[in-house]
Design a protein that fits this description.
By secondary structure, this protein is mainly alpha-helical. About 70% of the residues lie in helices and about 5% in strands. The protein has one domain. Strand 1 and strand 2 form a beta hairpin. The protein starts with a helix and ends with a strand.
Length: about 120
């Protein structure tokens, strides 16, 4: 089952490439939030990074290129990190850019400033 889940690579190969692509997803989520683009862009870029991870594992570790479950696991993890980075960056940006309107309400959100 784990071979199907990981796309027939070992755990160390999977986690090495996963950390690399999670970092790329985190940076992409921040870039999308910094340019005020909608969160739906994270879904598209997450799928593209999932394809990139499959290609990376295929070229470096001889994993099968077409692995549906492996692609879903890769893409879901990368997209989750990307959405988290997007929300953190957007919340920080809203509070810093509009300090007279908003105050932080945790790491992921903001609220109207009470008078």
């Amino acid at each position: 089952m784990t071979a199907q889940l990981l796309g027939s690579v070992s755990w160390t190969e999977f986690f090495g490439s996963f950390v690399l692509f999670m970092w790329a997803g985190f940076m992409t989520g921040q870039a999308i939030a910094q340019t005020w683009r909608p969160w739906q862009n994270c879904l598209l870029y997450g799928a593209l990074l999932g394809v990139g991870m499959r290609l990376f594992e295929h070229m470096l570790f001889a994993a099968p290129l077409v692995s549906g479950l492996g692609f879903i696991v890769d893409t879901a993890g990368i997209t989750a990190v990307m959405l988290l980075a997007y929300r953190i960056t957007l919340a920080r940006k809203m509070v810093r850019q509009y300090p007279w309107l908003y105050e932080p309400a945790g790491i992921l959100s903001w609220r109207d400033k009470s008078p």
